[in-house]
Automatic annotation (TrEMBL):
UniProt source species: Flavobacterium beibuense
Protein name from the UniProt record: Carbonic anhydrase 2
The organism's taxonomic lineage, starting at the top: Bacteria, Pseudomonadati, Bacteroidota, Flavobacteriia, Flavobacteriales
CDD domains: beta_CA_cladeA (cd00883)
Pfam families noted in UniProt: Pro_CA
Entry EC no(s): 4.2.1.1
Amino acid sequence: MDIKKVFENNKEWITKQIKSNPSYFDSLAKGQSPEILYIGCADSRVTAEEIMGLEPGDVFVHRNIANMVPNTDLNVMSVINYAVDFLKVNHIVVCGHYNCGGVKAAMESADLGILNPWLRNVRDVYRLHKAELNSIEDEDKRYDRLVELNVQEQCINVIKTAEVQRAVNNRNLTVHGWIFDLRTGNLVDLKIDFQAITKGIADIYRIT
């Protein structure tokens, strides 16, 4: 790719936006009031707004390798805090995707350097659900299921945060676990029953 092409594309995009809506950039510059915080994978094939059919300003986006929400990562914790307490989002989506390279890398017995401590979080997900995952004989299906369980566990990490708990109580903020299927283009709602999952541990993590 010629990097200069990016700037040419930008000029074409500006022209297209102004043609369809002359006040597009005036509106964009006024500020943001997104309804959704999207936490997704940094994979270049998965673009948040595009797969949801939404526009700039509609979604507050955070992306990292394997859509992780570790409490030790000040980046993702700061994003959650800002989105919930200042932007007042009403939905938080953790979106994974099948064929996730980060999830697959986590299950390889290889030294991945600085990625080791990051991907250990995915290995912890495998450890928590080892019996279920090991019962799946087909390797591809096992990885698919690990991707789903990773989304589930990261959603639980979101729910553990104080600002999310306050927003759930005060304005019914909702947490969602989704999968983007690269093979079909479909967004899949995992319909995770967080109340049932956290029932036995709510007293441990309840802050508010």
